[in-house]
Specification:
The strands form three sheets. Strands 5-6-4-1-7-8-9-10 form an eight-stranded mixed sheet, sandwiched between helices. It has a six-stranded parallel sheet with strand order 13-12-11-14-15-16, with helices on both faces. The protein is α/β, with parallel strands linked by helices and about 475 residues long. It folds into two domains: about 15-240 and about 455-465, Glycogen Phosphorylase B (Rossmann fold, 3-Layer(aba) Sandwich); about 245-450, Rossmann fold (3-Layer(aba) Sandwich). It has helices at about 5, 40-45, 65-70, 90-110, 120-145, 160-170, 185-190, 195-205, 215-225, 245-250, 255-265, 285-300, 320-340, 355-365, 380-390, 405, 420-430, 435-450, 455-465, and strands at about 15, 25, 35, 55-60, 75, 80-85, 150-155, 175-180, 210, 235, 270-280, 305-315, 350, 370, 395-400, 410-415. The protein binds 6-O-phosphono-alpha-D-glucopyranose. 6-O-phosphono-alpha-D-glucopyranose binds near residues 19, 20, 40, 180 and 377.
Length: about 475
């Protein structure tokens, strides 16, 4: 296994640090830990770019099988030098479930139900100490492994405290922290217990530079830090882009072709509304169904002539709010189907399998793609779909998604809280004449052309080196 000294005095090697790595492990039927690709834009976009032998990716062992694999130290994962860090499971579960997913995710997305949550009791404060501990363990691991003067790119809200800890340990390295979510503004950051809010801000301010998908989240970040009396570090705005090459490779595979046929048989000659999301609160799946029900109510002529394919895959099932939300989504889809469905027409097809070839088939076929998050750092689906769609499909996109900033002219923008507006936008999209559909679709393709994950990575490296 190589160490920091093997690399010296080489400069500008790259170290990616993230919670979830580019590969994850599961046990096969003989109990061996076997690798598989992990989901998500970060992993799919970065995987091909860092398989160069000069980059190191440090991620966290999330599953039991990951922990077994972590014991082998540095591994070659399809050309990526990868190490999985084995963190004490109790510390990790507090850091991931309680702080990252149930506190920071909710805070940055503005989805706390403030009359009830959050509740910062002793249990929570213990979890915060474990979040700190987790970030320290990761910072120590990076400090021990990063080549001299490396560019260290730390990803996302799980690791907000790493920059400060790492800068204290390794002043020679450049540290970028990139936030994939929105960022809480001053009012929201003020919800955190003051010590924790301050620590979060100081943690990030330890970076050479902090990056965001849009200037809106960047501006909230700088305003929040200033509201706490902390001078923000340098910042940059660089939206991630979809891995279109990877999607096309999936599209040409047998599994995706079979899914296209299957979806075509399901929809028959109906128009197809598609959504592809992780099954979670910020994605606003309930209001999407309410809008669709409103449309079916107002437009009986559309009955049997439209099908809503909702590909929503469960995630973070350890978080009670997610489990409850899933039940609500399933109940609402059943109730809309019960109300409008007939023997030969199911208005909503709710699919909770995590099947990427099926999602790509949906991208190719949709007439309308509904992306209506209450708030979203970027939303890659709004870019992945239009990049490969073959039906001049119309994008109905929440104005609260980061990607709306540059897709606004080529989609139907909606206020995600406004069910009536969303219903009208779905209607307008379904009724749209072919020429307008084709113009909008071409506009989307034009806007997305040239946006690549490589550019995004380069922006982070530039920001590291500018510091
Ligand atoms: C989404 C978000 C990212 C986040 C990731 C974590 O992709 O956009 O900001 O890092 O989820 O997902 P996980 O499944 O690891 O909790």
């Amino acid at each position: 296994m190589s160490t920091v000294h093997d690399h010296e005095p080489e400069s500008h090697d790259l170290v990616i640090v993230s919670n979830r790595g580019p590969v994850g492990f599961r046990f096969d039927d003989r109990g061996r830990a076997v690798a598989g690709k992990t989901a998500g834009g970060l992993a799919s976009g970065l995987r091909p770019l860092v398989a160069d032998g000069r980059s190191l990716w440090l991620a966290v062992a999330i599953t039991e099988a990951d922990r077994v694999a972590a014991a082998q130290g540095r591994m070659d994962a399809n050309g990526i030098q990868l190490e999985l860090l084995d963190v004490d499971p109790a510390v990790y579960s507090d850091a991931y479930d309680v702080i990252s997913n149930s506190t920071l995710w909710f805070l940055h997305h503005g989805i706390f139900d403030l009359a009830r949550t959050p509740v910062f009791n002793e249990r929570w404060h213990r979890a915060w100490r474990n979040y700190r501990e987790f970030n320290l363990v990761v910072a120590d691991a990076v400090a021990a492994r990063a080549p001299r003067r490396a560019d260290v790119l730390v990803q996302d809200y799980h690791l907000s405290l790493v920059p400060r800890f790492l800068a204290a340990r390794r002043p020679d390295v450049s540290i970028v922290h990139y936030t994939h979510t929105p960022f809480a503004g001053p009012d929201a950051i003020g919800i955190l217990p003051s010590e924790a809010g301050r620590e979060l801000a100081e943690g990030l301010a330890g970076a050479t530079a902090c990056g965001f998908h849009t200037s809106r989240w960047r501006d909230r970040f700088t305003a929040s830090l200033r509201s706490l009396g902390i001078e923000p570090p340098a910042t940059f705005v660089a939206p991630l882009a979809p891995d279109t090459t990877g999607i096309r490779a999936v599209a040409s595979g047998e599994a995706c072709r079979a899914e296209r046929t299957r979806i075509d048989q399901l929809r028959r000659d109906a128009q197809l509304i598609v959504r592809v999301d992780r099954l979670e609160l910020s994605k606003n799946i309930l209001r999407g169904f309410h809008a669709y029900a409103d449309l079916l109510d107002r437009r009986p002529d559309l009955h049997r002539r439209v099908v809503f394919l909702a590909l929503v895959y469960p995630s973070r099932e350890g978080v009670p709010e997610y489990a409850a939300y899933r039940r609500e989504v399933e109940a609402l889809a059943a109730s809309v189907n019960g109300r409008f469905g007939t023997a030969d027409w199911q208005p909503i097809i709710l699919d909770t399998d995590d099947d990427f070839p099926r999602a790509v088939a949906g991208f190719f076929l949709y007439d309308v793609l509904l992306v209506n998050p209450v708030r979203d750092g970027l939303n890659l689906v709004a870019m992945e779909g239009p990049a490969v769609n073959e039906a001049d499909g119309v994008l109905v996109l929440s104005r609260e998604a980061g990607s709306h900033t540059f897709l606004a002219d080529h989609c139907l923008g909606v206020n995600p809280f406004d069910v009536t507006e969303t219903s009208r936008a779905l209607e307008q999209a379904l009724d749209m004449d072919p020429a307008t559909r084709s113009d909008l679709a071409a506009g989307l393709v034009g806007e997305l052309r040239g946006r690549t994950p490589a550019q995004w990575l380069e922006a982070q490296i530039r920001a590291a080196r500018a510091g």
